[in-house]
Amino acid sequence: MDKNILTIEKLTEDIKEFIKWYNTKNIKENLKGMSPIYYRITFL
What we know:
The longest helix has 17 residues, at 8-24. The relative contact order is 0.12. The chain has one domain. The protein is built from two helices and no strands. By secondary structure, it is mainly alpha-helical.
């Protein structure tokens, strides 16, 4: 069996992990070097 088969469950989990990373760990230059969530907390 092909090891690269992607199931709906795995895809869903990968998307959730990406969103979590994007919102908490991803540093944006246009957000003054902050993650999107930290930027929102700081400036809103």
